[in-house]
Amino acid sequence: TIYFKEWDDPRVIDKHTGHAIPNPTQKDMKEKAATGAMHFKIHSGRTSYGLPRIIGNLFSIWGSRASDVINFQTFKNNNIPSMVVTVSNGMLTQDTIDRMEEYVNAHIKRSDNYSKFLILEAETQDEEAQNAGTMKIDIKPMTSQQHTDQLFQIYDNNNSEKIRRSFRLPQIFVGKTENINRAATESSRRLAEEQVFGPEREEMDRQINKLLTHFGIKYHTIKSNSPNVTDDAALTKIISGAEKS
Q1: What does the radius of gyration of the chain's CA atoms come to, in whole angstroms?
Q2: Domain's final residue, options 94, 119, 145
Q3: 34: how many CB neighbours lie within 10 A of its CB?
Q4: How many other CB atoms are found less than 10 A from the CB of residue 96?
Q5: To 5 degrees, how large is the angle CA 41–CA 42–CA 46?
Q6: Residues with Cβ within 8 Å of residue 82, at least 6 apart in sequence
Q7: What are phi and psi of 116, to 5 degrees?
Q8: CB-CB neighbours of 136 under 10 Å
Q9: What pLDDT does 63 receive?
Q10: Which domain holds residue 9?
């Protein structure tokens, strides 16, 4: 583990232990001194490392992770079989049960055996039954009871929306393009630039300009470039209207 120290901390910090060196020697300065780093963080009095933006939706992240696990386990270990074999007024012979197990293991688990069929045999429970013809074997499909898609879809989508709103990002910036036209896209770009990315760049510029003073730079400042989000069509109409007037 390598430790850094907070920028502008006058102490000499050991980069291997994270502790201050009381009386550092020239050798300590060369071999052990930690590098100062500026940490752009969301301040919190509870920790010196700051808090992530998604801290308010931490349970949503855990919930989505748990729902993925449940979906995977449901897909891998489906508790609802694809069919049920029922026997009325009788019982399957042991040979038939063994044959069914062998058939399922050898054929049903493979995808190239749709045309195969299985012969079942059964015997009456009472060998002296007067009406043995009432015995019946039914195979009932259970596919309608199986899950046809993943679980918790609405819950997971809601969690995704909560996390996206933590970063104040429009839908188009996270790859969601459903029901979004060009006009909505341009509005989203301008809104994100004005309320999200622009203020973030200004805050970073302010921190870096404060850093320049430590190097004796007084007459220069840093200003980050920003994208052009001007509505050219609207600007053209304004200029055309001004020329006509």
Answers
A1: 35
A2: 145
A3: 22
A4: 19
A5: 105
A6: 108, 141, 142, 143, 146
A7: -80, 155
A8: 11
A9: 94
A10: 5-37
Q: Quick check: is 91 in a domain?
A: yes
DSSP 86-131: EEESSEE-HHHHHHHHHHIIIIITSSS-TT------EE-S-TT-S-
Q: What confidence tens digit (pLDDT) does each residue in 179-232 have?
A: 888 888 888 888 899 899 999 999 999 988 988 888 888 889 999 998 887 777
In total, how many domains does the chain have? 3
Residues 171, 179 contacting (CB under 8 angstroms): no
Report d(CA 44, CA 223) in Å as an integer: 27
Burial class (CB in 10 A: 0-12, 13-18, 19+), 149: exposed
The pair of structure tokens assigned to 223 is 């200003």
Q: Which pairing describes strands 91-92 and 122-123: parallel, antiparallel, or unpaired?
A: antiparallel
- The burial class, CB within 10 Å (0-12 / 13-18 / 19+), for 13 is buried
